[in-house]
């Protein structure tokens, strides 16, 4: 942080009631009133350096005490006192924290070089350009301080110059970043780093007011230099900084007693951040989008904002994790813990896009689309397992979400079965009809053998589901036995009638000279083997070695 010290004399101002008085032997002849504060000063010190006071005191006699009201001076009494101390050569310390007020006040008082050489205004401007704008944090602190005097700072160009300085440093290659910055990512300080991270600037600019932050991000994006992911990271850091309940998915982060002013502030933040999210897919994480959707509902954000968030969340749903979906319910009318309605809405948005892409018959994307929806199906089934543990979860919401997933999306129903089983275990009081509704989307044919065996013995499952599981389990077992017997029969026949020419050559041990004869022998042997197989399988040529009665019995059965 840069500082500038002006003046050599000690501070001799003191306060008496609501007045600020200077300790001196000379009687005061200038009274300055600024709102509730009164300054007792001397024209001989202030008038030569302040063009405004010089004009206001021109008509007064030198022996008279002049009283002037300066209620509209930018920066108020504190800024005026800095200028007054400069006129008395009293030491003042200037930094990014008080520079803006002093700069605007000196401009208001017309303390320029044209009034008096070496005046305060040119000194402040030189400090601003040569020191403040050259520093990273100085530029940010100065920019933030302009919120108290927006019109003055805009007219003096302070806002634009600070933003340009900040953006210039953001665009600086990381190898050239040498100024101090704040970076407190978890675990970052413990590791050894050879270079500055690409998002080194995101935490410092998160201290800015929302409008100033938006101006900085907009200016940085207009250069088309920063990747969308960096813009998204800056938005994420800023949201975590100013939404106290954003980083937590628990109910404790939300205050039911939050006043309307705070809700309005947070509503405006959500609306602004959503409008700033880059259109590029993946510029922000799916977890970030889902939490924004949840908070947007809580703070009653605009319909446009919520619609856009749901659309963006649906585009990236396959990138979500189970933790991302476990968002708290903010409805006072619902006792259940998780916001299943939000997840169902985002899932529907995803499915609408998926169906639209699938109907386009893009063969190059078919595999990718199938992989995408199967990944989402696994995620939803895992989510169902989690919400099934909520004792207040209604059957209707669980069923609605489980049935929303298309049949093609689930290769296996093992995860769905586990979710249903957990729900039945946690909710033993539900009726038979509700149990049937729960298992309506369960396909026992898509259960693995182990899970199907568990379902057959599961007393919590409805009888119809158990019967279906038993049927498919027996069918699978019979198919397995039939397949094994067919394989055994083919293996036996292969042993009796070898037809592999190469293996017969090896058995004959023929040399190279006898190759031609060997081929003839092999061909004749193969023909005889095939005729033998056909004759052995022809029922009319079967020779029975049993008794006559047995022979008659078989003949009559064949007929």
Automatic annotation (TrEMBL):
Pathway: Protein modification; protein ubiquitination. Residues 28-96 form the BTB domain. The keyword Hydrolase does not apply. Residues 527-541 have a biased composition (Basic and acidic residues). Residues 477-502, 527-559 are annotated as: Disordered. Residues 199-476 form the NPH3 domain. InterPro entries: BTB/POZ_dom (IPR000210), NPH3/RPT2-like (IPR043454), NPH3_dom (IPR027356), SKP1/BTB/POZ_sf (IPR011333). Keywords: Ubl conjugation pathway. GO terms for biological process: protein ubiquitination. PANTHER family: OS12G0117600 PROTEIN. Belongs to the NPH3 family. This is BTB/POZ domain-containing protein At5g47800.
